[in-house]
Write a structure and sequence with these properties.
With 509 residues, this protein is an alpha/beta fold. The protein is built from 24 helices and 10 strands. It has helices at residues 2-19, 35-48, 65-74, 84-91, 100-107, 130-136, 141-145, 156-160, 165-172, 183-191, 206-209, 235-238, 240-246, 255-268, 272-283, 296-300, 305-334, 338-353, 356-367, 372-396, 400-408, 413-443, 456-465, 468-501, and strands at residues 28-30, 57-59, 79-83, 112-115, 124-129, 152-155, 179-181, 197-201, 212-214, 227-232. The strands form 2 sheets. A 5-stranded mixed sheet has the order 2-1-3-10-4, with helices on both faces. The chain has a 5-stranded mixed sheet with strand order 7-6-8-5-9. Helix 1 (2-19) crosses helix 17 (305-334), helix 1 (2-19) runs antiparallel to helix 20 (372-396) and helix 2 (35-48) crosses helix 15 (272-283). The chain starts with a helix and ends in an 8-residue tail after the last helix.
Amino acid sequence: MLRAALLFLAMAWLGAAASAQPGEGTLRVGSKRFTESYILAELLAQTAAPHTASPPVVRQGLGNTAIVYEALRSGAIDLYAEYTGTIALEILKGSPADTREAMNAALAPMGLGVAIPLGFNDGYALAVRAADAERLGLRTLSDLAKHPELKLGLSNEFLGRADGWKGLAARYGFTQAPTGLDHGLAYEAVAAKQIDAIDIYTTDAKIEHLGLRVLEDDKKYFPRYDAVVLYRLDLPARLPKAWAALQALEGRIDEHAMIAMNARAELQSVPFDAIARDFLAGAGQGAKTQETRRGFVAKLFGPDLWQLARQHLVLVAVSVGVAILIGVPLAILVFPHVRLRALVLGFASLLQTVPSLALLAVLISMLGAIGALPALIALTLYSLLPIMRNTVTGLAEVPNGLRLAGTALGMTPPQSLRLVLLPLALPTLLAGVRTATAIAIGTATIAAFIGAGGFGERIVTGLALNDRELLLAGALPAAALALLSEGIFELVEMLMRRRRRAPPPSPPP
C-alpha cells in the first residue's frame, strides 16, 4: 500500500509537470503584470486563434521584464508585447539600438526578434496630484527635483531598471529616497496623499480619472517606448498562418484606443478577453459590450472558481506528497548521524530563506519552462523543512527504553524502525506535514506569477487592476482551503488519539 501511494505521487508529479508544456503546434503568449500587458496578450492570442490548430495558451501576469524575457528566451512562451525603450535599455543593456533593424541585429544571436509595431507609445513619466502641481508650480521633472520634501512612491521594477530611478536621479539631481510600491497600488497611495509623486505609464487610464499632472521630461531622459511584439525567430516558420494574421495588428492601436481599453479594465472591471474581443470586432476605443460591472459575489463565484481550485489543489497535493516522499526517507537516513543531520537540515532551512519569486526566476532559467513544473519544484523545496525537521524530532522523542525493548525482542533495525520508531514518531511527523501543507497553500498563490494557475491568478490580476474585490475573491478561497486542510488534519489526529486510547481486545475465553 505504501509503495503504491509513493508510486502514485511520483507519477502525479511527473504528469503535472508534463502537462505544463503545450504541444509544438500551440502558440504561447506571455504578458507582464500590468493592465495594458494583459490586454495586449489577449489581443495577440485572439488575433492568431483562428489560424492555429489548437487554442493559444495565454500566460498572464508573469511578473516583471526579467521573468517574461527569461520565459521567452528559454522557449516557454513564443511572444509578448514589449516596448522599444525597454528592449534597448533593459534587455540589450544599453547597446546601440535606435532602430528596429539595429534591435533585430542585436537580438538575433539570442534567437529573438522585434516586429509588428502596434501604433502607440507608452512611455515612463512621473506624475503628481494636480492641486500640488498648481500650488508648488510643478510643470517639469526639474521642478520636482527642487522639492526634496515631496515623497516619491515608485514601482519596484522602475527602481531597479537600467532606464529607471538611478539614471533619472542622476540626470535631475533628485535627493529623495523613494518608497517601492506595486504599480497598481501606487495610484491609491497618491490619491490618499500617502505619497506625492509616482511613476506612471503614459497610457494609464487612472491619470485623468484621479486628476494627476504628468510632469514634462525637460532633460529628455526617457526614450520612446513604442509597443512592439518581441518574438522567437522560429515562430514565423513554425506557425506561418498565425504569424501572418498577427501582421494585421501593425499600426492599428493608437494612444487613445489603448487608454480607452485600459479604462474599461481598470474603471469598469470588464474582463481582458472581452476588451480584446470588442476591439478586434471593430468597436475600437468606443467598444461597449453590454456587460454590467461585476460585484464581489460574481467575482468570488465566477466561472473560473473550480478550475482555479483544482489547479491550487494539484499544486499543493503533489508538492507536499513529493516532499513527503523525499523528506521522510532522507530524515530517517541522516537521523543517526548528528553532523550530517545538522548539515541537511541547515540546507533545508537555507532554502526557506530564498524569496519565492527569486527561486522561481532561477528555476525558469534552469529548466527553460514556466508554469506547473517550476512551481511544483519550488513548493516541494519549501515543504521539505517542516517535514524533515518533525520527522527527526519525532524519532528523537522515542524513549530509550522502547528502543531497547525492540532490540531485546530480537527486532532488526528495519523492523524496529517500522514497528516501533515510526509509529511513535507519527504524530510529530504528521504535524510537520500539516505545517508544510499550510505553507504550500499560501505559497502556491505566488505560482500565478509564472502561469501555474491557482487562486493566485485572481490576486495577481487584482493587484494589477488595484481591484480589492478581485484580490479578496482570490484570497478568501485560498484561506478556505487552508481552513479545510486544518480541519482534515485535526480529524486525523483525533482518530489517532482515540485509537491510542482504545483498550486492547480481550483474550478469547
